[in-house]
Amino acid sequence: MNYDVVVIGAGPAGLAAARRAGGSVAIVDDNPAPGGQIWRGQSPDVPPAKLLCGARVVAVPEPGRLTLETYDSEVDLRYRALILATGARELFLPFPGWTLPHVAGAGGLQALAKSGLPVEGKRIVIAGSGPLLLAVAKYMRNHGAKVVLVAEQAGQPALMRFAVSLAKHPGKLLQSIPLRLGVRYLTGCWPVSAQAGSVTLRRATRTWTEPCDYLACGFGLIPNTELAALLGCRMSDSGVAVDEFQQTSIAGVYAAGEVTGIGGLDLSVVEGEIAGYSAAGRQAAARRLFGLRESRRRFAEAMERAFRLRPQVRDIATDDTFVCRCEDVPLGRIRAFNGWREAKLQTRCGMGACQGRVCGAAVEFLLGWKPESVRPPVFPARIGTLR
Amino acid sequence: LTLTVNGKPLAVPEGAMVSAAVALAGVTAFRKSASGEPRGPLCGMGICFECRVSIDGRAHVRSCQVPCRPGMEVRTDEL
Q: Quick one: which H or E segment has residue A158?
């Protein structure tokens, strides 16, 4: 199949990009329906385009061409311009008990609930960091769950500074501030272990155990950069590096939304629009949105500062805590190595089904190792797809 | 719609993902890890592969990304 523009990701950035891109457009998304994570299950407005859901890019056989795999088929897709809007995933940090079946991500548990997992009457502790915790608390409470508490690792002073700065940016966040939510919101608090049916939390000098049916735990978001890396796009400190027109280091390949750096819904939409206009050759229209993007970036930076992870969160993983959940490799087994290459060769850490998507960022936070390389296929694929 | 989880018939709402069906069947351990631990979904969005099950004989399918269809046969790992 041939398209002028192929958009990877049907979340806010991808849909905005597809709306502004001219010519024939295809949108590809690994999820079963468009909307990304934030609009999961909400049937968002989808611009006229060929929509390929339940399809993931597994390889790039040559520039201008992608190999996709679905549940039961393979697709060969060709493009003139490519827009990467692959979004973000949660940062999961290992701690004793984090592999137990009742422990899920914060956004993870919300995604599961949106997919039909019953949460009514369940006692849920939400922990980790970031504004997502509050959105999840609100969602769970609205769906009949009993939110025991929200444990935010960031301290009160940083959050207060952020709250004051919010007055200058009347964004959606104001709607979810904890006072209106009516749930226990403990700042400077984080989980130290999970046991079957409970979680142990620490706040200052106090350590205690809360019974719960689910622990929903995520420490912020990280961009999904694997496909961009496979294409050879240059990275910045925050994600995929882009110029003012959202073009990556590769001509004709654009990136928009969380994949360029975590910035939230509003920034993702404006970046998507700029990428769409740029891919369509409408640079003047793109330029008119630069100011809006700049103000939304400043808001994102303030948020990043407020929820920055404290060093103490590193210490919750013990030497016998699995960091790699695919290959069951404990932290103590990789600590002694010099980096990813050695650790992979000796322990298979990061070489399982998720291909390091979970342990990669955790190990970067814990040991400072940067991911080294991305190789095809970027998702586990059937042999028949790659022939 | 009706499908089976580990051989037992189960009615689920239209639009539910297989991950929800497994949970509704009362199963918390979706798969057995490399060292034999029970595991369930972590990310809910197709990243972590912890929720993988077998569907109609196809192994290692991420249950969180596949909508339930009538007559599907879903199997989780035996611990």
A: helix A156-166
Give the burial class of A36: count Cβ atoms within 10 A of its Cβ; 0-12 exposed, 13-18 middle, 19 or more buried: buried
| A330: preceding bond cis by omega (within 30 degrees) | no
Contacts of A345 (CB under 8 A, 6+ apart): none
Helix (H, G, I), strand (E, B) or coil at A330: strand
Output the DSSP codes for A64-125: TEEEEE-SS-EEEEEEEEEEE---EEE-----TTTTSTTEE-HHHHHHHHHTT---TT-EEE
Cβ contacts of A108 on chain B, cutoff 8 Å: 41-45, 48
pLDDT digits (tens, 9 = 90+) for A127-159: 999 999 999 999 999 999 999 999 999 999 888
- Do β-strands A198-203 and A206-211 pair in parallel, antiparallel, or remain unpaired? antiparallel
Residues of A in contact with B50 (CB under 8 A): 325
**Cβ-defined contact of A353 to B39 (cutoff 8 Å):** no
Question: Is B20 in contact with B67 (CB distance < 8 Å)?
Answer: no
- Residue A75 CA to residue A67 CA, distance in Å, equals 6
Q: Determine contact, residues A61/A37, Cβ cutoff 8 Å.
A: no
**Contact check, Cβ <8 Å, B37/A116:** no
Cβ of B15 and A116 within 8 Å?
yes
Note the ipTM here.
Answer: 0.97
Alpha-carbon distance A132 to A126, whole Å? 10
Q: Are strands A322-324 and A329-330 parallel, antiparallel or unpaired?
A: antiparallel
- Copy the structure tokens of residue B68: 């339930």
- What is the rounded distance in angstroms from the CA atom of residue A155 to the CA atom of residue A75? 48
Query: A89 and B65: CB-CB below 8 Å?
Result: no
**Mean pLDDT of the A98-108 span:** 98
Q: Which pTM does this prediction carry?
A: 0.95
**B52 DSSP β-pair partners:** B62
Determine the longest span between alpha carbons in chain A, in angstroms: 61
* Lookup result for tokens 């991950």: B19
